[in-house]
Specification:
By secondary structure, the protein is α/β, with parallel strands linked by helices. It has helices spanning 17-21, 23-31, 59-77, 120-134, 151-168, 192-204, 237-245, 256-266; strands spanning 7-12, 35-40, 82-84, 97-98, 104-105, 138-141, 184-189, 229-232, 271-279. The protein binds zinc ion.
Length: 303
């Protein structure tokens, strides 16, 4: 008997984040017959172009190009429900700068329709419509700091958290569909312990990585005790590599960082790690859950 009816929503800021952070998660639930919806908030028009032959692209041209890259990546994963928040190009990449503390920061100037400047109610309502239509039990986005601080990651987080409250409220915009409550929201994060292990292996192999003092062992990710779920990468390594590789304008998979990342994904027991953002807690356990739907009580419960 297959009673599994998992419905998962992922909200990512721009193309390629789904392929660097969520491929195993998306592939696994699709493989199990679940429904996977990906929402991408901008076209990533201000991403750093890795290939010299595409350096001349204007932001608009890069955005168009990145739509074809994410299409290819999602074909590799098998995702066929992909939505651009408010339609393609509604929200422009806000860009990013580096603050005095070396962290990602909000740039001084950005286009008028930059996602960072979005009216939050309008942006959330685009997502309310998707939530009420797809009725996900679980949703995924970044943590409140946007993981490493990219303004559009932070905004994606805000929009999902806000939209989840509005979507569940019967009095809010009944014209956008019947109310729907997402039972659990998780935030993607670094698999801290695996990052530490992979960093040591990569250094041994002579890969040129960021200096340890710049990013000490305690800043590889959250306290591992906070990680509530890990979705195993091992069955999906090939898909992970092909999906990431599809983002050629942004990702040179031979770059030392991505070689490090590959080492990390290949470590035994490695996987995509999550923090609990809101909603139903995971069942009590000493180890992180192996399913994002663990312990939910409606038709989604089977893991
Ligand atoms: Zn990103």
């Amino acid at each position: 008997m297959s009673a599994v009816n998992h419905r998962l929503l992922l909200v990512h800021a721009h193309p390629d984040d789904e392929s660097s952070q969520s491929v195993a998660t998306m592939a696994r639930y699709l493989d199990e017959g679940g429904q996977v919806t990906l929402v991408t908030c901008t076209l990533g028009e201000l991403g750093e172009i890795m290939l010299p032959e595409w350096q001349h692209y204007t932001p608009a041209e890069l955005g168009q190009h990145r739509m074809s890259e994410i299409d290819e990546a999602l074909r590799e994963v098998g995702v066929n429900d992909h939505v651009y928040l408010g339609g393609p190009g509604r929200y422009h990449d806000s860009g990013m700068t580096t603050g005095p503390d070396g962290r990602a920061a909000v740039p001084d100037t950005m286009p008028d329709n930059a996602f960072w400047r979005a009216d939050l109610l309008e942006a959330a309502d685009h997502l309310v419509e998707v939530i009420r239509d797809r009725r996900p039990q679980v949703a995924v986005t970044y943590d409140p700091h946007g993981n490493y601080g990219h303004p559009d990651h932070i905004q994606a987080h805000r929009v999902l958290m806000y939209a989840s409250v509005l979507a569940a409220s019967p009095s809010h915009r009944p014209d956008l569909g019947a109310p729907w409550r997402i039972q659990r929201i998780v935030w993607n994060t670094h698999n801290t312990q695996r990052w530490v292990e992979a960093y040591a292996i990569a250094k041994e192999r002579g890969l040129e990585l960021w200096p340890e003092e710049e990013r000490g062992a305690d800043s590889f990710g959250p306290d591992p005790a906070q990680i509530v779920a890990v979705i195993e990468t091992a069955p999906w390594l090939g898909v992970c590599r092909r999906a990431l590789g599809a983002h050629r304008s942004q990702v040179d998979i031979e770059h030392p960082f991505w070689q490090f990342y590959r080492i990390m994904q290949e470590l035994p027991g490695s996987g995509e790690a999550y923090l609990l953002g809101a909603g139903e807690p995971f069942p009590e356990s000493d180890a992180p859950a192996t399913c994002l739907f663990a312990g939910l009580d409606d038709e989604a419960a089977a893991c």
